[in-house]
């Protein structure tokens, strides 16, 4: 077999291993999935009328706020799944299984590839489930055709892959699962300081730069434009630059740490 065939075979094996772990231990995934669903229900049914009136400057219309809120919640769902990725990688590194893998004739990078692909698949499935809840409570896409939906799906997948590589790196540098969970926590908190819940222009001046110069805000605005027909502007290429940059950074950080770590 060629080296490429071996890499694909071993990566597929590691992917199946990670998916089996997720199926056998679903509590972490379910707990992280419940967070965006609870936020969605909270902001729609408790704060929806007030937030809609404040953003629109007119009467309360909960349906308008649902449309505004859902793109941010979908990207926040991806952020929530990253904690599980970091914890899973940290467990592999500290429980001795990686040391055994290194004594076997398997492609070295397949371990990380299995984690990344498995985590991206879980993130996409989580987004689909949260999106189904959003549709059930009234979210409707406006003027989005097949191309817009495909672009939106591609954006979510690219975003998930970029941050998954960062989460893998966080798991590799963490001494235990608790530290990995704490290290990945900012990936959940960062979308809270973005345009997910309110427009950036409505934020205080000292918060606005944090919301503007981070990856979640342009990604949210791009997703809103694709699904709701709002103005995208420069946000699409800023999002792509963020995603590609984080992917490259996370990949080299993770592989360099994995290759030199003796555990």
Automatic annotation (TrEMBL):
Chief localization: membrane
InterPro entries: ABC2_TM, ABC2_TM_bact-type, ABC_2_transport, Nod_factor_ABC_transporter
Keywords attached to this entry: Antibiotic resistance, Cell membrane, Membrane, Transmembrane, Transmembrane helix, Transport
Top-level taxon of origin: Bacteria
Compartment(s) where it occurs, according to its Swiss-Prot or TrEMBL record: Cell membrane; Membrane
Residue ranges of domain ABC transmembrane type-2 in the record: 27-261
Positions of transmembrane segments: 25-45, 65-90, 111-137, 149-173, 185-207, 236-254
PROSITE patterns reported for this sequence: ABC_TM2
A Pfam family this chain is assigned to: ABC2_membrane
Topology versus the membrane: Multi-pass membrane protein
PANTHER family linked to this entry: NODULATION PROTEIN J (PTHR43229)
Sequence similarity: Belongs to the ABC-2 integral membrane protein family.
Record protein name field: Transport permease protein
């Amino acid at each position: 077999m060629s080296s490429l065939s071996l890499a694909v075979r071993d990566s597929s094996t590691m992917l199946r291993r990670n998916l089996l772990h997720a199926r056998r231990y679903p509590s972490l995934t379910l707990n992280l999935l419940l967070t965006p669903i609870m936020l969605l229900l909270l902001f729609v049914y408790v704060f929806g009328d007030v937030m809609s009136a404040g953003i629109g400057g007119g009467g309360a219309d909960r349906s308008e706020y649902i449309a505004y809120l859902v793109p941010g919640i979908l990207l926040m769902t991806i952020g929530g799944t990253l904690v599980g990725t970091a914890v899973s990688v940290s467990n592999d590194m500290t429980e001795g299984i990686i040391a055994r893998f290194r004594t076997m004739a398997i492609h070295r990078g397949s371990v990380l590839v299995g984690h990344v692909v498995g985590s991206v698949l879980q993130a996409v499935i989580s987004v689909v489930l949260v999106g189904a809840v959003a549709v059930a409570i009234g979210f409707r896409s406006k003027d989005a055709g097949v191309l817009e939906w495909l672009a939106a799906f591609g954006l979510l997948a690219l975003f998930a892959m970029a941050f998954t590589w960062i989460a893998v790196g966080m798991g590799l540098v963490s001494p235990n699962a608790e530290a990995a969970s704490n290290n990945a926590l900012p990936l959940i908190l960062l979308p809270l300081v973005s345009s997910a819940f309110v427009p950036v222009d409505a934020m205080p001046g000292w918060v606005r730069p944090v919301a503007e110069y981070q990856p979640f805000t342009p990604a949210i605005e791009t997703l809103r434009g694709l699904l709701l027909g709002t103005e995208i502007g420069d946000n699409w290429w800023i999002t792509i630059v963020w995603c590609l940059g984080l992917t490259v950074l996370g990949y080299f950080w993770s592989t360099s740490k994995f290759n030199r770590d003796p555990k």
